[in-house]
Amino acid sequence: MSAPKVVVVFGATGVQGGSVITALLADARTATQFKLRGITRDPSKPNAQALAAKGVECVTADLDSKDSLLAAFKDAYAVFAVTNYWEKMDAKLEERQGRNVADVCKDAGVQHLIWSSLINVAELSKGKFSEVYHFDSKANIEEYIRSIGIPATYVLPGFYMSNFSSWLYPNPQSEAHELVLSLPMPPDTPIPLLDTAGDMGKFVKAALLNREKTLGKQLLAAAAYYTPEQILSEFAALKPVTGKGAHFVQNSHDAFKSVLASAGMPPLAQEELAQNMEFMHDFGYYGKASLSESLQLLGEPATSWTEFMAKDAAYKQMQ
Q1: Taking CA 161 as the corner, what is the angle to CA 84 and CA 242, rounded to the nearest 5 degrees?
Q2: Cα distances (angstroms) measured from residue 151 to each of 65, 109, 147, 219, 300
Q3: What is the pLDDT of residue 272?
Q4: pTM score, two decimals?
């Protein structure tokens, strides 16, 4: 029997990377075929120690240092890479870090890079929405990866289901204080939802197990398209007391930014998130692409919105 192949996972204790590690350890095929090396800021922290107890090799690596990355990629067969735009809100920095990963994968002879990507909104919208930087920067990195000829698959996470618990709030204009979901988009806008912690790893696992099928392709990591009206309808069905009267309000661009401002978000991020919401109706989160091919490749069910609410801690106290 051949030795397990090393798979490097960035963000090992984060949402996406943690999901990848969980999925690969939980499946007998990948648990025996691959040895996991998790990249984490501090291997001595409890979360990293918990992974080490499960057999994950936890190491540090600096995205700004190619030498550091080369050491982390030693003998690696595959790398799952994700960068965090929101940490510094610097698209140029994120792109530089992503290029570093790509360059070192090529130098180290990595046979399969799996990049957590997104679409280029500015390009798709022909400049109408030019400030969705956390999408465009990842798309630019994908373009660079393709340009240097690395064997790679691109997994594009959908809209996080976990976002909605903080966006449902009591309507201050109603005596009953029904919950309101207010976003700058029409109520029939299709949003591809993903249980990121539960399902991102399933899509990455599918890429690893179907390398030849997925090289050079994008996997659209989402369970299904849901409109805001469907999101609230399923919420009310599962939580009939809390969800009674819950309704959607199409917010204006400026009103949505005001909500974000009141939460302490800086102006750059306010505009970025407003455009992030607005582009989905006219252009589509995935450019209006179907999810069917990606879901067929998954080989197991993706978590539905109702299933997510039923298990998520944010909804436990709701009735």
Answers
A1: 140
A2: 22, 10, 11, 15, 25
A3: 97
A4: 0.96
